[in-house]
């Protein structure tokens, strides 16, 4: 028998933005069928993705925590971040490959969608050429947040831009000038910079700040009313672009 047939299957599983009820049926099936569940986490924590799917992990399933060596909020351009994080993904890929080589199926949990700012994509590009690699789409954090708040973001010919808050302020301003609606991710300690950029292009008043969207402790408020303290990791800024929407829309007031 061809040795490749004996190898296990790698599956990147989107767990959605936080609410366990936003898991897809396909994600639940992939988790149930996995011999090994791998998940990214910080030291001392099992991570949010693991918590979301806990009810669907079969007893006896092997678990493989992939512990980040540095914070994901560090500046990605700094050598102190790029070196350790690249080595981490190399090691993680080989740990998973060792299970795949024994014929075991490995599901890697990814918060939101695996191929949208997801850590899983770093494993996919390292392993997909060697093993069967499937991806189960997940509900993104941004769609979870605008649904939770009831905020229509864009319609018709509106342009939507997804921007990382880690961009330099001048680049944020440039991008915000040339879009109708926007989703700003990776907020954290970048919140004051994001607020300044939105104010400079006249879009601060309509912006909505959401933290821990769809989770039990989720909350939303107008960004201009949010204090200057750093935002938690699970936070996002929504900038609606539908300027002609009926005045009865109160999504941003929730």
TrEMBL record:
Question: Which positions make up the signal peptide?
Answer: none
Q: Which domain of life is it from?
A: Bacteria
The UniProt entry's GO biological process terms, in alphabetical order, are: cobalamin biosynthetic process; methylation
Q: Which UniProt keywords apply?
A: Cobalamin biosynthesis, Methyltransferase, S-adenosyl-L-methionine, Transferase
**InterPro entries reported in the protein's UniProt record:** 4pyrrol_Mease, 4pyrrol_Methylase_sf, 4pyrrole_Mease_sub1, 4pyrrole_Mease_sub2, CobI/CbiL, CobI/CbiL/CobIJ_dom, Uropor_MeTrfase_CS
The pathway to which it is assigned is: Cofactor biosynthesis; adenosylcobalamin biosynthesis
Query: Quick check: keyword S-adenosyl-L-methionine in the entry?
Result: yes
**Protein name, as recorded:** Precorrin-2/cobalt-factor-2 C20-methyltransferase
Q: Report the source organism.
A: Xaviernesmea oryzae
């Amino acid at each position: 028998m061809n040795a490749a047939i004996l190898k296990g299957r790698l599956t990147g599983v989107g767990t959605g933005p936080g609410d366990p009820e936003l898991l897809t049926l396909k994600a639940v099936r992939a988790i149930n069928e996995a011999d090994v569940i791998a998940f990214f986490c910080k030291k001392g924590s099992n991570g949010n993705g693991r918590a979301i799917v806990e009810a669907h992990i079969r007893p006896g399933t092997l678990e493989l925590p992939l512990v980040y060596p540095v914070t994901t909020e560090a500046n990605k351009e700094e050598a102190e971040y790029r070196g350790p994080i690249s080595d981490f993904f190399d090691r993680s890929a080989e740990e998973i490959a060792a299970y795949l080589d024994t014929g075991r199926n490995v599901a890697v949990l990814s918060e939101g969608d695996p191929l949208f700012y997801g850590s899983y994509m770093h494993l996919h590009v390292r392993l997909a050429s060697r093993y069967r690699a499937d991806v189960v789409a997940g509900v993104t954090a941004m769609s979870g947040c605008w649904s939770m708040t009831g905020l229509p973001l864009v319609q018709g010919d509106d342009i939507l831009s997804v921007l990382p808050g880690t961009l330099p302020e001048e680049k944020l301003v440039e991008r915000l000038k040339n879009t109708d609606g926007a989703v700003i991710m990776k907020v954290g300690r970048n919140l004051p910079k994001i607020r300044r950029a939105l104010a400079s292009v006249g879009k601060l008043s309509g912006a909505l700040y959401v933290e821990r969207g769809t989770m039990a402790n989720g909350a939303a408020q107008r960004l201009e009313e949010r204090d200057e303290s750093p935002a938690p990791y699970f936070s996002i800024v929504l900038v609606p672009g539908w300027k002609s929407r009926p005045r009865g829309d109160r999504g941003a007031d929730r």
